[in-house]
Amino acid sequence: MKTLELNQMEMTVGGWDWQWDAPLTDSDWGCAALGLAAGIASGLNPLVGRLTTLGCMLTQ
Q: What's the whole-model pTM score?
């Protein structure tokens, strides 16, 4: 069985790689518009808009 070094294990277990300086893609803007529309349609409820945006971005 092959053993991994510490830096290889960090890359394996990493998780969601988010870069704060990365430009937004067209699908990110689409998710933002969808969340805004859902928030407005539900009576200006920001929680619904945030959850809609988050769900859209996680399913991309």
A: 0.61
User: Domain containing 50: what range?
Assistant: 27-33+42-59
pLDDT band at residue 13, thresholds of 50, 70 and 90?
very low
CB 32 within 8 A of CB 53: yes
- Does residue 52 form part of some domain? yes
**Distance between CA atoms of 41 and 53, rounded to whole angstroms?**
14
Q: What is the pLDDT of residues 18-58, one digit of tens each?
A: 566 778 888 889 999 999 999 999 998 889 999 999 999 88
Torsional class of 20: left (φ above 0), alpha (ψ -120 to 50), beta (otherwise): alpha
Total tally of structural domains belonging to the chain: 1
* Residue 47: inside a domain: yes
